Amino acid sequence: MLDYLSLVFVVAVKVFKKTTPNGKVTVYLGKRDFIDHVDYCDPVDGVVVVDTEYLKGRKVYSQLVTTYRYGREEDEVMGVKFTKEMVIGTEQVVPMVNNKMELTPVQEKLLKKLGPNAYPFTFNFPEMSPSSVTLQASDEDQGKPMGVDYCVRTYVAESEDQKNHKRSSVTLAIKKLQHAPASRGRRLPSSLVSKGFTFSNGKISLEVTLDKEIYYHGEKVAANIIVSNNSRKSVRNIRCMVVQHVEITMINSQFSRHVASLESREGCPVTPGASLSKTFYLVPLARSNKDIRGVALDGHLKEDDVNLASSTLVTDGKCPADAIGIVVSYSVRVKLNCGTLGGELVTDVPFKLLHPAEGSNERQRFNAMKKMQSIERHRYENSLYTNEEEDNIVFEDFARLRMNEPE
Amino acid sequence: MFDTMANNFTDESGPMAYPFKMVSQEITEHMLGWNVPAEHQDMVHDHWRSYPDVSKYWHYCLALIYTMLFVLSISGNGIVVWIFSTSKSLRSASNMFIVNLALFDLVMMVEMPYLIANSFTGRMLGWQTGCNLYAAIGSVSGIGAAITNAVIAFDRYKTISCPIDGRINKVQALIMITFTWFWTVPFTVMPYFQIWGKFVPEGFLTTCSFDFFTDDQDTKVFVACIFTWSYVIPMTLICFFYSKLFSAVRLHEKMLQEQAKKMNVKSLASNKEDASKSVEIRIAKVAFTIFFLFVCAWTPYAIVAMIGAFGDRSLLTPIATMIPAVCAKSVSCIDPWVYAINHPRYRAELEKRLPWMGVREPAPETQSTNASTATSQSQPAEA
């Protein structure tokens, strides 16, 4: 909720910060979304500001933690926990261990601004670490949503393994996302299938071709369908849908959800000997699937940036089956209904749904669109908070949030 | 003088003492079932007549045990039904089964005041009708509780092995609950109307159950069937589902370990306290407890019935046959503690509503610490 406030300072660089409940340690992060470019991943770079007198010889540690949540809290019977927390990196921040650490530009700026009590820390995501994914909860689900998420936890303790105290620890939720490669490739995914019938001669064949291999979130997926009917049956209707396949590797289960679908009788029935060529347009959007439980979304921290989960990409030479966490993939599925006795002819054409790569033209267009949306939201939300003085808002809100935290 | 007095005494009291003596002798030599009037004599199997009547102290003792069980059952199961049905956070499909089990246990509890009354009169109140009612209540609740245990095992297996899509929804849960009630019907209705098998007094002749003594093929087949229906099938299902559940948990743990290894992670725990105790052991403990309770509840009954139908009947003294009934009833009082008290949300609710019970449920880790409260800060323009 606080982020829209940053729009007040449009030219300013956005920095995220959070303070421990006792107010002695503050963590600053330059961003919350860290992009996995498949061959390398943005490091998690931040700065900790600490009241050195308060420490009294104790140390400040930071951890990069990933949490897998693969079941609802209320279903945890018999002592089973559907939550697994993995600490994928721990670093002693204060006192600094590695003085020659290479600093990122954001860290340099922050160190300069925050003075001598600021200490930098950097984490690298392990090569194989999964992307942040949230599975959409239904209304009746309580507790945290399922999925994979990341956070940076900072705490004060005598030693690394010592149990940290709530009042002197702070956790910032972050995301790890994947973006599309700079070029979208020329390959047009397609599939050709045909179906024969037990009691009659001839076949119905179906060819589905997509206009791209990689789509960006919000883009229209165009599926070109060619049906040629050389059988004695006729095609009653055509269903076309975008299927999201979700594989939850930690419990070896998978499911799929239809995130966009369309049914058409136009040009039907396709009678024996006839053929049909047609293009279907589908837009898979998180917005239009709000009520479907289990739809995978890109890990989200706040309401505004919800979009369907991006397809999971793996490094060249690695098997997609090696990917861990929640693996997401998409396909266009076309179903021909060949009548009650004829059955169905089904084919799947895989494609990828991703964010445009940083810096590309598409990215700029995408950002512009996003910005417009958030400005509109901002305008609306601001109308609810007009009484607050702009200069103080950040700090007042922050104080209120801190009061809500448990003591 | 003493002699005459003594003579006088005997002379005077002699004719009076004789009938008294006769009566007392008769009491000590009363056989079980002596107080059943002629028209109801056919209720009592000859086997019981070979045992002397049970002293009233045994009856009182049994009544006392049942009184305690009654209080325990009504408080334990009553609280379960009350809390699960009135608190919103506990309204889930899985919990419907727990409420169902508590309902079956409450049905069994209805038997208890009946038995207490019987114990004080020393016979079955209401003769055959009373006996039928008593046994029908016992049969519905016993068979129902057994199959509900199996259904709970199934539900847990589904929730744990496929936590995302495998869960049972409320409609399915209702269907399964209806199924548990139907499961009790055949072996309650058939003996009730004496279509197949019948209900007869047993043990102290103050309780009733199905007949496993009549020495004919029909009864033997009946005993074998009810044994399979209400003991073997639920037990097999319980073992099957809990072992499947256990292997599912092991698989999940293994896969998570592998993923952790891929990321070079050392610590793998849902939280720090759990690190020392593996999930598998915890699950195995709970599953074993449930299985063990089921065995405790119904194995004595099964053994007695099998001995009665197929074995050496001289082992079945009245007291020996009362033990299974007490076992089955005690487990109906323990059930809520096993299923509900293990439930973190139930404990939390219990603590809220009945703080005097001293249930201490550590508050679940608060969300706000993990929620993002990142805020933005303006930087100088040159930054």
Task: Write up this protein.
The complex is a heterodimer of chains A (407) and B (383). Chain A is mainly beta. In chain A, 14% of the residues lie in helices and 39% in strands. Chain A has 2 domains: 13-178, Immunoglobulin-like; 190-354, Immunoglobulin-like (Sandwich), CATH 2.60.40. Chain A contains 5 helices and 20 strands. In chain B, 67% of the residues lie in helices and 3% in strands. Chain B contains 11 helices and 4 strands; from the N terminus they run H-H-H-H-H-H-H-E-E-H-E-H-H-H-E. Chain B has helices spanning 2-29, 46-49, 56-86, 93-121, 127-161, 170-183, 186-192, 217-262, 279-310, 318-339, 344-353; strands at residues 199-202, 207-210, 268-269, 375-376. A two-stranded antiparallel ribbon of chain B has the order 1-2. The model of chain B is unreliable at 1-27 and 363-383 (pLDDT under 50). At the A-B interface, strand 1, strand 6, strand 10 and helix 5 of A face helix 5, helix 8, strand 3, helix 9 and strand 4 of B. Strand 1 of chain A pairs antiparallel with strand 4 of chain B, so a sheet runs across the interface.
